[in-house]
Amino acid sequence: MIHCGKKHICAVIACILIFASILICYWKDLQLPNTVTRKILHKATSASPAGQLCRGKVANSTITALKDNKTFIISPYFDDRESKVTRIIGIVHHEDVKQLYCWFCCQPSGKIYVSNAKIDVHSDRFGFPYGAADIVCLEPENCDPTHVSVHQSAHGNIDQLPRFEIKNRQTEPFSVDFTVCISAMFGNYNNVLQFIQSMEMYKILGAQKVVIYKNNCSHLMEKVLKFYIEEGTVEIIPWPISSHLKVSSKWHFSMDAKDIGYYGQITALNDCIYRNMQRSRFVVLNDADEIILPLKHPDWKTMMSSLQEQNPGTGIFLFENHIFPETCSTHTFNISSWNTVPGVNILQHVHREPDRKDVFNPRKMIVDPQKVIQTSVHSVLHAYGNSVNVPMDVALIYHCRKPLQRDLPRESLIRDTTLWRYNLSLIRNVNKVLSQTIL
What we know:
CATH topology of the largest domain: Spore Coat Polysaccharide Biosynthesis Protein SpsA, Chain A
GO molecular function, one term: glycosyltransferase activity
Family: Belongs to the glycosyltransferase 92 family.
Membrane topology: Single-pass membrane protein
Strand content: 25-35%
Pfam family, one: Glyco_transf_92
CATH architecture of the largest domain: Alpha-Beta Complex
CATH class of the largest domain: Alpha Beta
Distance between the termini: 109 Å
Subcellular location: Membrane
Helix content: 10-25%
Largest sheet: 9 strands, mixed
């Protein structure tokens, strides 16, 4: 009896010790930040020299596929508007990608921190299986990482992971007032004349930078882009999305059942906003065949000053789209030297379609990038502050393209020659570009 009692007492003591150990470990885990799930120390006991920890290859492509081939990293950005996080713009399969980790390398402390990522797939996916996503990780304390790797696991060898530079770590004064984001240029784009006219109109209205996410374009268009790059106006972001996914040129899955819609336009727009968050006061989100045309002001700067004064706290300004069909033209401004250039001469298209009954005119935007969290094409999904629909008598989007109302007679169209206010400067500037590139 006594012998059995000793065994029983030993077993009880052992259980108590095990339970106490579990409680201690659990208590220690609670002391760690919630999103920092694991801390891995480098093998060296002392601080390693700068550059020794992050030995993974630095990614140099705009779109980098992870090993699962269902997660694609565009670029990470530092975002301290609410808390100190790295926000990674990416593309993910909305069902198959459930868990990701950020591997932060802190130098010169000699520590690697692995942080559990929150995967936020944007709501405007339009039925496609892949969509734009924010992969957000809380950064560890006392660490200002310059690079981050993304992995499906909290375990592994960091040497095998591509690493990405975290942009926007340094706050700088704005270098420009307006940046235009165009996404995406695809389909062997060759509307050369209209592109040059749009570019010159953007510059007349106040844009200093145009960022283009380029999938492909014609050889002639490449020459024009080279001119604008050398001029310092255009920044090209290579956009090889068709190398990774089956892309659709349509906006909805029901129209074309591919992996992702409209060449990943939404992802590119979000990347463009964060890319320019620290360097541009405003970002203009429109296509190359669209111009936000002021009616009450000579340029964007005076227009936006007035709109901000009237709408304090507003960071999102939405402008109504109006179609100027390329099928309806005027003989005015039929400039012979332009006739050999492929593309549309917008000066000859000054008749717009009337509003359709019970049909919403889509809008494009000028935004304060520092107030945007997530954007779609025609609206901002999440932002700080308010949005405002700009009245049509203040500005409209001049959109010269194929007609939407094909059966309308010419007399039903509305003659609108607002664009002609800029004709002298526009013609002079377009001729200058053509003389240095094509003619």
